[in-house]
Amino acid sequence: MNAVEIKNLKKNYPNFTLDIDELKIPSGAVIGLIGENGAGKTTLIKSVLNIIRKDEGKIMIFDKDLEEAELDVKEDIGIVLDNAFFPELLNPKSIDPIMKDFYKNWDSELFHKYLNDFGIDEKQSLKTMSKGMRKKVEIASALAHHPRLLILDEATSGLDPIVRNEVLDLFLDFIKDEEHTVILSTHITSDLEHIADYIVFINKGKIVINEERNELFDRYGILKCDSEKLGSIDKEDIVACRENKYSCEVLVSDKERCREKYPDLVIDNISLEELMLLIIKGGK
Amino acid sequence: MSGMIRKEICMILQNRKFLVICFAIYILYTFMFDMDMSFYLPFMAVMLSISGFSYDDYNGWQTYASALPKGKTNIVKAKYITALGLMIAASILGLVLALALIKIKGAGSLEESVSALAGSIVALSLMLAILFPILFKYGSEKGRMALYILAIGIAGITLLLTKVIKVEISPATMAFLESAAFPILLIVIVAVALGASYFISRKIYLSREF
After folding, report:
1. Residue A234's pLDDT band (boundaries 50, 70, 90)?
2. Is A37 near chain B, with CB under 8 Å?
C-alpha cells in the first residue's frame, strides 16, 4: 500500500508553480525530501496536509481521498512543521489535554513517556526551552497519537549532532514495523544519507529525482576532470556539469558504464549535497 | 473544541501575575476613590482575547492547528466562545465588586453599575463582531490597525454628533431608550452581529491558506 499517492498536483503562485505529475510514497519507508529554499518542498507538504488549496490534482493518503476524508486521514498523520507550533507561553503539561481534543487516539501516557525519555521538564514553558528541547516536544506531540504517517518539515534543523542522532534513531524505530512512513524534508542531506530509503529531489516546483537511496548512490557519480577532457565526454552522459577555474565536475547518471567508457577519468561516489549542487547550479 | 478553549484560557493564565496586579490596582482604585469602574473589567477581558491572536501569529500556531483534525473550524469557534465567555465572566466579577462597593462604602448605585456594564457588553460585542473577521483575514498586525481605526472612528462620530452637529435626543427617542423594548433591541442587534461575524470569520478562515 502507498502511504501517499499524488497525481497531477498543481499549485500556482504568482512567481512559482508546484507541478507534480506523479508521486507514490510507499508505506514502511523513510522518504527524504530535498531541494533548495523555495523549491516547493513545504508547498508539497502543505498540500498533503490540505492547509493550502491545490489548483489541480488528486492526493490520496492510505488509499483515501484527502479532500473527501480529511478528518479521517489527519488522524493518521503526525506533524512537525518549520516554525509552527503551540504559542511559547504554554508548557508541555498544558499541551497534553489540548491535543487530546484533536486526536481520537491521543495517548497521554505515551506523550509523557516521550517527554520523560527526552528529559523534558513538563512544567517548563516552551519560551524558556532551547531549540532542541522545543523540537523534542514537537516530535513527542507528533508521535503520541500513534500516527501511521509522520510528516516532518525541517524537524532536525538547529539540533546538535547528538540530539539529531537520537531523533533520527527514533524515526528509524518508528518505521520498524513497516506500516509506518516518514516524510522528512531537510537541508541536512547527511541525515538522509543515513536513514532515507527513498530520495525525492524537488527543483523549481518539479520532481527531478525520485529514487531509492541505494540505487541513487549506485547509479549517480561525480566525474572530475579538466576543461580539456570535458570536451571528450559525450553530451548524453552528462546530467549536469559545473566548471570552475581549474577543473570540472560532471554529474553522470550511470557511474559504472561511464567508468568503462572513460577509463582514464576518475569517477567518485556522490553525496546528496554534491548531487543537489550540481543539478541546481550546474549546466549541461 | 474544548481543547482549543483550554488553550486560549491556558495562554491567558500564563499572564496571571500581570492579571492579579491589574486586578489589585483596580480594586484599590475602586475602594480608594469610591468609584465604580466595573465596565473596565469586560474591556480588559476582550483585550486579552484579542492579544491571543498576536501570540498565535508569532508562533505559527494557526498553521499548526490547521494541519490537525478539525483544526480550522475549532479555532474560529474557540476564539468567539472564549472572548464572549471571558467578557461575561469579567462582567459578573465587575458586578460583584460594584455590589461590594455599595454594601461596604455606600457608594454608587446598582442601577448605574448594571447600565454601565450592559453598555460595555453591547459596545464590546459589536467591536468583536467587526474586529474578529479582520483578525482572521489579515492576522494580528493589520487587525490591530483596524482596532485603532475603529476606536478613533467611534470617538470621532460621537464627537461629531454631540459637539459639531449637536444632535439632540427628542422626547420620543428618550422614551424609547428608557422603555423595555430598547434592551431587547440591543440584544437582538448584538446576537445578529455576532452570528453574522462568526459565519464570516468561519468562511474566511476555511478558505485561508497557511
Report:
1. confident
2. no
Q: What is the ipTM of this complex?
A: 0.90
Q: What is the 3-state secondary structure (H, E, C) of chain B?
A: CHHHHHHHHHHHHCCHHHHHHHHHHHHHHHHHCCCCCCCHHHHHHHHHHHHHHHHHHHCCHHHHHHCCCCHHHHHHHHHHHHHHHHHHHHHHHHHHHHHHHHHHHCCCCHHHHHHHHHHHHHHHHHHHHHHHHHHHHHHHHHHHHHHHHHHHHHHHHHHHHHHHCCCCCCHHHHHHHHCCHHHHHHHHHHHHHHHHHHHHHHHHHHHCCC
Q: Where are the domains of chain A?
A: 2-213, 220-281
- Domain containing B70 equals 2-207
Minimum-distance CB partner of A101 among B1, B55, B56: B1
CATH architecture of A2-213: 3-Layer(aba) Sandwich (3.40)
Out of A52, A79, A94, closest to residue B209 by CB: A52
Are the Cβ atoms of A51 and B15 closer than 8 angstroms? no
Residues of B in contact with A99 (CB under 8 A): 3
Number of domains in chain B: 1
Q: Give the distance from residue A105's alpha carbon to the nearest chain B alpha carbon, in angstroms.
A: 12
Going by pLDDT thresholds of 50, 70 and 90, the confidence category of residue B165 is confident
